[in-house]
Amino acid sequence: MKSVLRAVATRATCSKPAFRHGFATTCRAPFREAAVYNRKGSVSAAASKNKKRYEVFRSMVITQFNNILDEFGNWSESNQELRSFGVRSEHGLANEAALFRKAISDAIVMATNGNVARATNPLFWSLRDAFIRGDVKGLTSEIRYSFQSFMLRSRMSADVTKRQKQMADFRYPMEWFPATRALQRTIHLHVGPTNSGKTYHALKALENAKSGIYGGPLRLLAHEVYARFTAKGKPCAMVTGEEQRIPEGVDNYFISCTVEMTPLNRLVDVAVIDEIQMIGDPERGWAWTQALLGVMAKEVHLCGEERAVDLVKSICSALGDKCVVHRYERLSPLQTMKKSLKGDLSKLEKGDAVVAFSRVGLHGLKKAIEEKTGKRCAIVYGSLPPETRAQQAALFNDPDNEYDFLVASDAIGMGLNLEVKRIIFETAAKFDGVNFRGLSTSEIKQIGGRAGRFRSARQAAISADGAETLVEKKNPGLVTTLDALDLPRVQEAFTQQAEPLEAAYINPPAFILERFSEYLPPDTPLSFMLLRIRELARVSPMFLVDISSDALRVADIIQEFPLTIHERLSILNAPVQLNEPSVVHLVQAAANCLATRQGGALYDMQEIDLEILDATIADFDGDGRRYLRAIEVLHHSVTLYLWLSYRFPNVFSSQALAFHVKELVQAKIEHHLDTNVSFRAGQHEAMLAKRRKEIDKREREQLRVFGEGHERAAMAGEEGAGKWNEPGHEEPLVEDKTEYEQLEEARL
């Protein structure tokens, strides 16, 4: 989904259409019907074939548009949103709605006749693309923006549109970092499959430097590098969105951080940016692009997949930086098995790791494995406390104890210190924040590639003289699935090559957005401004602009509060759990505290229910599921508070207390998961079957609407290294509510 360009072919009578838009910018222009008849006057064959299919889509769009009108409410003097878009009466709103319905119908008629190109039928193209990418939610968001643009067409003069277009010229994002451009950098690109040693070599370069930065995709990886450097006596800071550990008494220290927190104003010798293929991820890719373009390091070491090579080389050429590519082969062979475990956990072997995608699922599998095999099972995932995570990994890696098995989240694919003989996928589908979808080729290969891994890039065998070396292990790594229905997808992935990345994602910097806001009517919603700038953005073939759907929702949530553009843009990046109403209310309360500069102490914010700390399951009538959800919501709330405390410390001043509360909450969650989660094979199979059915239904719906061969623009985004949509980019408690059925009856 990129932009809304033009509703239908128009005959402008008094002004030119806005650039890439199609809605007149100074006064209304009459619409004319798209041609759907051939020269003989009969309906064309293409129109006849597509008419029924696109009528279904038209009906869907109109239904969602009517729902949006209901959300707008009736026109009134106090309805700031409608007034900001130039609507001055109830009659005016009805007239705009009727004209927009006509624009939708005209676009569908053009599509029926085979005209579905972005350049000639942009409204249809953008609505279809939004539906493919984000299902009904994505479609609704695009319809809303389309209608807002439609209403605003008479208020956008040609001069204003011209200035907006000038500010949205993003062809040269490297110019956003002038201090970095003054450096002559060397970019070392380390590429290869999992377990090839690429990150090992990059981290050795960082260790041998006098100063440097590590930027990784996960908090747990930032912590591992931080712990490694600290253990070797090298002063190191850890910086993530919700936690910062700065060494005391030293001015020169290394920094280990999540990529979003990579410092761009600190001159260092070496910077390591891990998982560079994430540069092509629509949600988080901007952070990798920003780090690549802006980090002030003499040497920049990028680690990732082969498919990133051509794009990175093109970007380096545009930057004027030297690019050296280092390619690596796996240190041990990898094979996919011909058979699955067929759901039988008794077939597990020592050194096996079962991969699942939610914490409830992981704890349920752990208990089931231990009951079925009589052996112990370690558990590792991102949100475990670092000390616990390291302890569990050590128990699994030690061959001389009873911890024969491991259950782990997909974070295992990002470089945890785990020596795995065989990777077993619990399922080949996961929730991506919008829908359940099949795992991408890249995700399967990256997770499965951990099998047969003697040492991660973070570790090395210690030789007699204490030097670190990579040691090759000849035994092959094996990959299979728990369920037979998932095995063909996993086998297929290892025969495929992921498509090369074509473009890196960028986000316009705050200073451009602040200037852009000056050329929109007062009280224009921030979400509209973001989509408007995305629509007008002019980029080179190497870059794409995308605005996170979550960011748009957060923008609307805080719209009513009198905040500066800078404050609004800051909150857009907060770790907000949007599917929890109480957390959404907390965001609004936080925005109000920021606007009034008061009420931001942790104990003053009623939306953070600290009384849960003293609650037991008995206080929830023995309902362990309600209890778990309540403490999980408190965890999300405190995480958000900590994030705010680093950005606005004068308002959200209870940081130390918040850290203490977070530790208590994490302990309660882990204890409950460890003692009250079970694995019921029948329910588990039914849940997986339901998810497969949901995926199939969505794909059939898209086929029903668009037919065979419709363009799957969303697939490029799905080929990222992973979807990390949780706060801190970690695994969710559950992927859907049916997983709560795995909780046992409460033990009172």
From TrEMBL:
Its EC number is 3.6.4.13. Keywords: ATP-binding, Helicase, Hydrolase, Mitochondrion, Nucleotide-binding, Transit peptide. InterPro entries: DEXQc_SUV3, Helicase_C-like, P-loop_NTPase, RNA-DNA_Helicase, SUV3_C, Suv3_C_1, Suv3_DEXQc. Residues 726-748 have a biased composition (Basic and acidic residues). It holds the Pfam family Helicase_C. It catalyses: ATP + H2O = ADP + phosphate + H(+). It is an enzyme of class 3 (hydrolase). GO terms for biological process: mitochondrial RNA 3'-end processing. Its cofactor is Mg(2+); Mn(2+). CDD domains: DEXQc_Suv3, SF2_C_suv3. It is found in: Mitochondrion. GO terms for cellular component: mitochondrial degradosome. One of its GO terms (molecular function) is ATP binding. PANTHER family: ATP-DEPENDENT RNA AND DNA HELICASE (PTHR12131), ATP-DEPENDENT RNA HELICASE SUPV3L1, MITOCHONDRIAL-RELATED (PTHR12131:SF1). This is RNA helicase.
